[in-house]
Design brief:
The two termini are 19 Å apart. A hairpin with a 5-residue loop joins strand 4 and strand 5. The chain folds into 2 domains: 45 residues, no CATH class; 66 residues, Winged helix-like DNA-binding domain superfamily/Winged helix DNA-binding domain (Arc Repressor Mutant, subunit A, Orthogonal Bundle). The strands form 2 sheets. A 3-stranded antiparallel sheet has the order 3-5-4. A two-stranded antiparallel sheet has the order 1-2. The chain contains 4 helices and 5 strands, in the order ββααβααββ. Helix 2 packs across helix 3 and helix 3 packs across helix 4. By secondary structure, it is of the alpha+beta class.
């Protein structure tokens, strides 16, 4: 499996596997000890990110809809969406109504 590493502006290293298509979101800061970098390098693909991408494969949804499809909490979903957007795996696709009647952003999978 081929991979590349990139450094984000806040110092986090992100390793992107070229296969499979879903990136490994390693979370080690430049100031972390070597053991943290080693653990991040061995980290499995984020299960939450994989579940969110699987949920969006069936069509666009808002945070609450994604949470419903995945069994994750809305907080867990909202924490992962910025990473998935930054990595170009999802994008905003308008707005939808949440179960509580409010408006929320709707997301769709790009790949």
């Amino acid at each position: 499996m081929e991979s590349i590493s990139t450094r984000r502006s806040e110092g986090r290293m992100t390793e992107h596997h070229l296969y499979p298509e879903i990136p490994l979101l390693a979370a080690a800061r430049r100031t972390d000890p070597p053991t943290s970098h080693a653990a991040a390098a061995r980290a499995p693909v984020s299960e939450h990110c994989r579940r969110i991408l699987d949920a969006l494969a069936s069509g666009p949804a808002g945070q609450s809809g994604i949470a419903e499809r995945t069994g994750l909490t809305v907080a867990q979903v909202s924490k992962r969406l910025p990473d998935l957007r930054r990595d170009g795996l999802i994008e905003r696709d308008g707005e939808t109504r949440s179960a509580s009647g409010g408006r929320e952003a709707r997301y769709r999978r790009l790949m």
